Amino acid sequence: MAFKLLYQVEVQKNLDDEDIELFFDYVCADEMLLSNEAKEYIRDVVYGVQKERDNIYLAISKNIKKDWEMDRISKMNMALLKLSIFEILYRQIPYKVAINEVIELAKKYGEDTSPAFINGVLASIVKEVQESSP
Known about the structure:
By secondary structure, the protein is mostly helical. Helices cover 76% and strands 0% of the residues. The chain is built from seven helices and no strands. Helix 5 (75-90) packs parallel to helix 7 (114-132). It is globular.
């Protein structure tokens, strides 16, 4: 659900509290009832990604191929990258868990090349993080 809401942000370019509540009421209601804990996690991810937007974009731009531009990344892939990067860097979710989950989402919702592209970017980011850790 956090991924779907981040994708909505990619499309709409902004999001406020009312949009999130409408998402919970209409989109999530069709698929499942979310606990308050799940809703809080989704809010935390969405607001966290917005707050750390510049750092997340920097991480992506530093770890894509030299001949790639950020605007070439599909909205779907961007939402997936933002979710995983936020979880790894700011939620301390184990990188193997975060990457596995986002790769499964990429297989389901992305293009044929999405899983490999996302895995490559995230692997590079994880390597960079591990090299900078004491």
